[in-house]
Specification:
alpha/beta, 14 helices, 8 strands
Length: 362
Amino acid sequence: MSKILKTNNPVEQTLNDLLKYLLESKKVSAVFSLRKVNKKGSVDYGLISNVAKLDEIAPLHPVMPANAGQLLGRFTPMDKPVAAVVRPCEFRAFVELAKREQGQMDNFLFITFSCGGVFQLKNNAEDNINNKLDGYWDSVKKGKIPEDIRNSCKTCEYISPLNSDIFISLVGEESRKIYLNTQKAEKLLEGFEIETEESKFDETILKNLLTLRAKYKEEIYSKINTKDSGMDGLIDIFGKCIGCHGCNTVCPICYCTLCDFDSFNYDYNTPIMEKELAEKGALRLPPDTLFFHLGRLSHMSFSCVGCGMCSDVCPASIPVADIFKKTGEETAGMFDFVAGRRVDEEIPVMIYKEEEFPELGE
């Protein structure tokens, strides 16, 4: 059972008042949120310590300019927690980073919400989101899939992270609600002059959207058949790759300071090229693009949270997110594991069991 804030004000105003209270009372060091860049609708992420600057924030705006989990993973502990308003996949990404000692949960007050999805980055860059917002929020209220959002959002079924400190119910709601889920949230909001009452989130309001997304996911996954098509199928999928490694750069789980694929180990010098030319008679340039994706895929099988950043930045329009998400769900599903579901849920590859998958033989 959680506590719910009782207010007649719009949820955006209540959230803004809540964040202002936390800053003014010095209960948090700063607020991390989306903020408006211009009047046309572009946003970015900002870390804010000046209360007056909170008038610029747009915490529920349906754009993800970067995965916040990746950004927050770089924070060193501050004097007091940071209040971070993030989407479910961003929260799950940070949970996975915390398991890998790339972040500390205690350093944040996490505020999440049931998510209707985000628009593609090109809409943010082209300043053409404002005219789409009414339709978007109408779809969210009715529990439908909004138009023009990322493919990964249309297939995402983890839209209500009830283990965050504060949870805002948006999907399927006429009047949106704010839940306090943890003692940390209740303690930090002591003195915030809004009444609370005991309440439990009704997950059945998500049923319609989850059903639609499951159907759409089945349709998308049916088009991805790497299992039966073998190496030729993988070459068909990743053959367009230009080797920019943008998918690696924006991925919240790829946290290595220097990726091995970006190191000198994969630099092609003349002797190596001459040797391979002698053996194969022809070389693809840039080299090792398929090897790069297979390497990332093997690392991401238990880690992908389906945020869709990789597909969104791919200049060759490769459906990287769909492939990684499908593969990840198949692999993690064998262990009943969901990336970012709980911070105490161990990563399967980190667990040793003397007997496992006996049906596969020795």
